[in-house]
Amino acid sequence: MSGNLPDDPSKKNPFGDIMETLNGFFHERPGRGLLESIDEFFASPNSFGGFPVQLEENSREYIVTAKLPGVKKDQISIDVYQQYLKLTVEDHETYNEENERKHTIQRRQSSRKSTRTIPLASPVDERRVKASHQDGLLTLKLPKIKGKRIEID
Q: Phi/psi of residue 95, each to 5°?
C-alpha cells in the first residue's frame, strides 16, 4: 500500500528536475537579473520604440501633445486620417573618421524610427489640423467634424 503514497521515493516525478532547474534560474540574480533588465528597458523614456503622447478632447477638437526632447521638427512626420493620427520620428546619424590624408578609416551609420498611432473616437477635419513644435513639445489641434443630429419622431 505504501507504494501508492505521493511521498514514495520510487515514484519520482519525471518533470521534477526540469522544474527545479527552471525555478532556480528565475530565482538567481546573475548581475542585475534578467527580468529586472527587461523591465528597465521598457520603462526608460529614451528606449527605442516610443515617446510619451497625451490625448485630450473637448466638444470641438482633439489636442495631442508629444514630448520629443532633442528632436528637430524636420525629423517629425505627421499623417492625419479621419479617425486616427500617426506620428513618426526618424533620426539618421552618420559618423566618418578620416586619417591625415583624408582617407576614410571608419564609417558608421545609424537610423532609428519610432511611430505612434493614436486612434480617435470621432472623425476629424484633416484640412484644418494645426501643428506646432517648441522646446521639445509637439502640439496638434485636430478639429472634429460635426455630424448631423437626427431627431426621433
A: -125, 125
Domains and CATH numbers, the chain: 13-44 (no CATH), 48-143 (2.60.40.790)
Other beta carbons within 10 Å of 67: 13
pLDDT of residue 109: 84
d(CA 72, CA 68): 9
Cα 71 to Cα 90: distance, rounded to the nearest angstrom:
9
Cβ atoms of 66 and 138 closer than 8 Å:
yes
C-alpha–C-alpha distance, residues 63 and 79, integer Å? 15
Cell of 150: 437626427
* Per-residue pLDDT reduced to its tens digit, 82-118: 889 999 999 888 888 888 887 877 788 888 888 999 9
Element (H, E) at 47: none
Q: Name the strand (E) or helix (H) holding 45.
A: none
